[in-house]
Write the structure tokens for this entry.
Amino acid sequence: MFNYTIPPPAEMPQYMEYITSMPDKDSPQVFGLNPTADTAFRLAESLTMLNTLIDTMPKEAGGSDGKTPEDIVKDKLENDILKNLPPDFLEIEYKDQIKKI
């Protein structure tokens, strides 16, 4: 875990170096939360996104074959979005590739 401290007085380049050494994503432990809090947060955000998609869909969708809005979103996720994702998304690998660029 990153050690958040106020750096001693220094010149601007030292402050900038310290700032760029900070992690891109803070650990929930920094805020006194359980390590699983990040997972719970991401699941809640995903559920909120899906519910927003369902709520904003047209209520009179023609040709839906009697499917509920939830089924339509589920089908769209399974048939369109998930098939276009890379096989395994490993955040650290992509960050390393971006840093090399």
The chain is about 55% helix and 0% strand. Helices lie at 12-20, 37-55, 69-84, 91-100. The radius of gyration is 21 Å.
